[in-house]
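Lecture 7, part B: from sequences to assemblies.

Below are the input chains for today's worked example.
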Amino acid sequence: MTLSPAIVILGPSALATARRIQALYPQAVIHGLSGRVEADAAYDDFGDTLRNLYRSGTPIIALCAAGIVIRSLAPLLTSKGAEPPVLAVAEDGSAVVPLLGGLGGVNRMAREIAAALQVSAAITTSGELRFGTCLLDPPSGYVLADIDQGKRFVSDLLGGESLRIDGEAPWLDRSKLPMAEDGGRTLHITTEQRAAQAHELLIHPRTLLALVDSTDDLAARIAQAFEQAGLAQKSLAALLAPAALMTDRTLANAASELNVPLRFITSDTALPTAIAQHDGLQVLRAESPDAAQTIGRPRGRLSVIGLGPGAAEHMTPAVRRALDEAQDLLGYETYVRMAEPLRNDQVRHCSDNREELQRARHAFELAASGRRVVVISSGDPGVFAMAAAVLEALEEAQAPTDWHAVELEVLPGVSAALATAAKAGAPLGHDFCLISLSDNLKPWAMIESRLDHAGAADLAMAFYNPISKARPWQLGRALEIVRSHRTPDTVVVLGRDIGRPAEALRVVSLGELTPEMVDMRTLVIIGSSQTRRFPRGDGGEWVYTPRSYPQA
Ligand code: SAH
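Predicted structure of the full complex, as structure tokens:
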């Protein structure tokens, strides 16, 4: 899978153009020089940043002089390995210059960006300029058999040779290639495995499917089946397997090693005809690369994720990836909005519906139909949030069996208590507990008893859901219980909207604390008897609970 591009800018004057490019690639992250410009991510050293992105294969759109980009990447360019697209774009959007990554689609990106900025791309690749297409970079669904042979072929065409196409190459319909019935050069679109003849270029369409019955020796059997039938393995579009193998790890690993999608069929799946058989394995030929990707359906995936407290930089990369790959997103509207940027093709199922189990069941229904589904919580999904509800829905006796075949994962996030604690210093530096003060899902008497025990055990405590319009008196009662175990000078931290634009952090004493200081967007930390506070250089206060108790 290709990575989302990185847009790299040096100062605020490039930000407007950067955002216009980001609208084209919603998953792209804008990296800004720290201290100079507020972007999605901050960097300190331009050269290091560019080189790291390049090494990781990330497409780079740098809004600065081409020369700076070239000099920064120069040390990495001597070895010509796989190259991500690298483009320089004038910060006012007036010029788009593809620099590197001709085979990674840099010219295509340059044209897309130029079209969005309403300028023309500075394409310098001669074959592409002349022919309006890059023969060596066919669209997805087609693979070049041999790059070196391809280069010779294109230079022959530039030298005046004419071309004939044998097979289906729909993307070349509107090209300016020098076509002729009796062309001296032939482009073959074929699933056949053979060495190219002189004056021939081979492109393999990904139209073949391997239908497997079992997972034994899969890679070897596929290789043999293709070889015996004279078929190019580069034409393999997907593995097909019976739905009964949906949870089979060996099969999933084999597909990812072969770098092809894995899809599942049932007895009523319409299959294309088999063109070869070998050792229990069939090779099927679909009508087109697109058709090959629609047979059967993928294993559905349900990712239960935590966004973290709010700021994008506190979201884990695994969560960002799950969001980017999602087809359906479920959660409160506020959380779905916090998951932006999202694409228009991603379906948002926003609900203010408090019925967590119902939402969990809906998520399973979507995932069991083969979709990639994300259920969104704030903070961590396992802390007073959706992960437990999802597991409860799955364990229910009436849960359909196909829910169990869904690839279910829980991806952690930074919970409000941890985000608030970090802002204040380290109030949870020793033993602590997390308590929800909401009695919607448990009896109030149990909350009182837990507060009493936690107070007696001298645990620091983090209160989630401390108060709401429907629960106005509970916090006051909770504080009475806490006060029976702690002195009035016990340190209290109030974190409100931590990691969000309205973030506010307060440090008070237990004696000063009143329920009016707290609302449902606040996380309350009550220190233990050991929790301490002291002034910071900037006027605020640090709060921490020492790692050890004084020894008696
Ligand atoms: N799963 C979430 C908690 C959901 S319960 C997590 O792990 O953080 C909702 C409660 O969490 C709120 O009532 C509030 O007490 C707390 N909370 C959530 N996000 C917060 C934030 N950004 N700042 C402060 N408190 C927050």
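Note for the exam: Residues 309-310, 377-380, 383-385, 415-416, 420, 464-466, 495-500, 520-523 surround S-adenosyl-L-homocysteine (CB under 6 Å). Keep this in mind when comparing with the next example.
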